[in-house]
Write a structure and sequence with these properties.
alpha+beta, seven-stranded mixed beta sheet, seven-stranded antiparallel beta sheet, 31 strands, 22% strand, elongated
Length: 715
């Protein structure tokens, strides 16, 4: 019979289980290493089953009385302007912000007080130092020298569980990093939040947020960043605060203010985003009170331990304990909250991707599923030439800085210069190399227009002036004005389709849906709307490449990746397979506006294809007339560079054009100097005009070198 249970951990799950067991007359002891209930932390959104659990415990009205007063969540820019909003009442109160949200520390206080009122005992400032399974119970040795015995021991002490470590082994075996860290702390509200939970995102994987506190003039702050696993002392708050300060130096918005507040906050807490996976959640009479989204709640570890430990005549109590365990799991899942759900649901939910991935970065090529684009022999030659000493005078503010040093400081991963068909400069940084697959972001669009040109030459597409509705007729049934939009309009970004960017991460803008959507075919078919007549106004718009992806699929009867392999990648003589990220496993549609991944040298081969008017490996792959037309200026943009068929035209250099992607991904072609330059990077390093100045300076240096050596036009 189960008479006594010892629980390790007084967070949320531990007190819930303690309360439910104590109500049934079980003697419950909760051991917690902290000196009291831990304050602070993320807000817990009570919804669905979690709300039902508290209601059945008789605590729902008390929970309402301590809930935060929040209007909703807003995405803000560096000046604090609201870019998008979702109110707490949207979606029936079940949106990103729940109708009832309680600070984690406040909910823990409520649950601990309730469990104590029913007889549970708490030993704060105490930790387990040894566990011995006696067969009919467990002997527990505590750090104060005392010993306790219990029928069952439950570890509810989170991802750093000492119980798990003692019973099952080291954390490295079971804890999987999810690629991010988050700090929570209390701070002064400062500039009034007006009851909004506001979040600011900065490219490069930084996010900061402020939400109203329960006490006037206070707020709960978070600072989060993406990162591979870091080596730091989890108990050294000074080290953790220094880590946060370094990460958010110069990040904008109110981050400097938040870093200062973190330095003095008494409830500052930093931890990694992780997931615990174990082959078994119990061993004998010792169990972990953790469940994963894909774990069968009817077979949780605690229930298995209860079934083994309880006397057969105590089935009523055993069934009741099962119910208590399920309740603990439900509230534990709520505490892990939307982030835990999000990380487990990124292939099935756009909102999950918004929460888990937030701002784009180069790691997205590994987050999205992908389809391989196979190559085949023969590989087109890309020989090394005499390395030409290039300087950084047109790029760096330091006269003594080498080009390699300047590129490294600018977050470059690969930088190649091909001159007269030979590699004259090649550098890699940050772990990249000649065989590393680099993502391209919007450079992918230039490949899309090239595939359209090939499909026209092959007779699969009749004309660039075909209406898009010739291939996607359902658009016309939804909106007759789609019949006026041609493939040319799509490729020149003059389709007249509406496109409103809200900035990541929250799912309100077209940019979020076209980048993070799990079914981009439906996004293109259902969300694209005609706003202006086609051919009149340039507007950078990611619905355009998505619609062209649908055209290519239907015209060729193939996945876009498969068509690219046979029509472009293999004839080009690429040295390595490429990949194209998909919207999701279920949908299997190439992202089209981005997501193409290849080596830097193979990007250079693509650039050489355009430098040589569509010829490579001794064959004409793309019609020369298409190359010239695609890279000619067709429409002006708000900047000094005009636009072709998903190609940018350098307004400062005649005969120069480039494919261009977020965070400074480039394939730059300069016909006059017979040069192709490839740059990939993890961040911008400088703005687009800055990179173009460097490319101009490099081509000028190569031209001077040719004149000096008399080698112009020769390999």
């Amino acid at each position: 019979m189960i008479d006594s249970v010892l629980i390790s951990g007084a967070g949320i799950a531990g007190p819930v289980l303690a309360s439910l067991l104590a109500r049934r007359g079980v003697s419950v002891t909760v051991v917690e290493s902290a000196d009291g209930v831990r304050p602070g932390g993320q807000a817990v959104d009570l919804r669905g089953a979690g709300r039902t659990v508290l209601d059945r415990m008789g605590l729902l009205e008390q929970a309402r009385s301590i809930a935060l007063d929040q209007r909703g969540i807003a995405d803000v820019d560096a000046q604090g302007k609201h870019l998008s909003e979702m109110r707490a009442t949207d979606f029936g109160g079940e949106g990103i912000i729940s109708e009832i949200e309680i600070l984690r520390g406040d909910l823990a206080d409520l649950l601990v007080a309730d469990s104590v009122s029913h007889g549970a005992e708490y030993l704060f400032g105490t930790r387990i130092v040894a566990l011995t399974d006696l067969g009919d119970g467990v002997r527990v040795e505590l750090n104060d020298g005392s010993t306790r015995e219990a029928d069952i021991v439950v570890g509810a002490d989170g991802p750093h569980s000492a119980t798990r470590r003692r019973v099952f082994g080291s954390a490295e075996e079971f804890v999987r990093p999810l690629g991010g860290y988050m700090a929570w702390f209390t701070c002064p509200e400062g500039e009034p939040l007006d009851d909004w939970y506001v979040m600011y995102n900065r490219p490069g994987g930084l996010a900061a947020s402020l939400r109203p506190g329960r006490l006037p003039g206070t707020a709960k702050a978070s600072l989060a960043f993406t990162s591979p696993p870091l080596d730091y002392d989890r108990h050294d708050l000074a080290q953790q605060r220094a880590l946060i300060a370094a990460r958010f130096h110069g990040a904008g918005w109110r981050t400097a203010e938040l870093v200062d507040a973190a330095a003095v906050a008494e409830d500052f807490y930093l931890d990694a985003l992780v997931q615990v996976r174990m082959p078994s959640w119990s061993r004998g009479r010792i169990t972990e009170s953790i469940a994963l989204p894909d774990y069968d709640l009817d077979h949780t570890a605690t229930e298995q331990a209860v079934n083994r430990a309880a006397h057969p005549r105590c089935r009523g109590l055993r069934r009741w304990v099962r119910g208590a365990v399920v309740a603990v799991v439900v509230l534990g899942a709520i505490v892990l909250g939307m982030f835990g759900w999000a990380y487990a649901s990124t292939d099935t939910s756009t909102v999950a991707r918004v929460l888990a991935w937030q701002e784009s970065d180069i790691g997205d090529q590994h987050r999205f599923p992908a389809r391989t684009i196979p190559t085949s022999a023969p590989t087109s030659p890309l020989p090394a030439g005499a390395q030409i000493p290039l300087n950084a005078r047109g790029f760096s503010n330091r006269p003594d800085e080498t080009l390699a040093e300047a590129l490294r400081e600018a977050h470059t991963r690969a930088f190649l210069v091909i001159h007269h068909d030979r590699i004259v400069y090649e550098r890699y940084f940050d772990g990249s190399g000649p065989q590393t697959t680099e993502t391209s972001f919007s450079v992918a669009k230039s490949f899309v227009s090239t595939l359209v040109g090939i499909a026209i030459e092959q007779g699969r597409i009749r004309s660039i002036d075909d209406p898009v509705t010739d291939y996607v007729p359902e658009l016309a049934r939804r909106e007759p004005r789609f019949t006026r939009i041609t493939l040319r309009d799509l490729m020149t970004m003059t389709s007249g389709l509406a496109y409103h960017e809200s900035g990541f991460p929250w799912p309100f803008g077209d940019d979020t849906y076209t980048y993070l959507g799990i079914d981009l075919r439906q996004v293109a078919l259902d969300r694209s709307t005609v706003e202006n007549p086609p051919g009149q106004q340039w507007l950078y718009n990611n619905y355009n490449p998505l619609l062209l992806g649908l055209v290519l699929e239907r015209a060729t009867g193939m996945h876009v990746s498969d068509y690219m392999s046979s029509a472009l990648w293999q004839p080009l003589g690429a040295a390595h397979d490429a990949t194209w990220n998909l919207d999701s496993t279920a949908s299997g549609f190439e992202k089209m506006e981005s997501g193409l991944n290849a080596t830097a040298r193979d990007y250079a081969r693509f650039g050489l294809l355009f430098l040589h008017d569509g010829e490579a490996n001794g064959q004409q792959i793309v019609p020369a007339a298409w190359i010239r037309t695609a890279t000619a200026p067709h429409v002006d943009t708000p900047w000094s560079n005009s636009y072709g068929y998903f190609w940018w035209i350098d307004g400062h250099r005649t005969g120069s054009f480039y494919a261009f992607g977020d965070y400074g991904q480039y394939i730059y072609i300069d016909r006059d100097s017979d040069t192709v330059i490839v740059r990939t990077g993890s961040d911008w390093g400088t703005d687009n005009p800055g990179w173009l100045r460097l490319f101009h300076d490099v081509t000028d240096q190569l031209t001077r070198h040719d004149l000096k050596s008399g080698s112009a036009g020769t390999p």
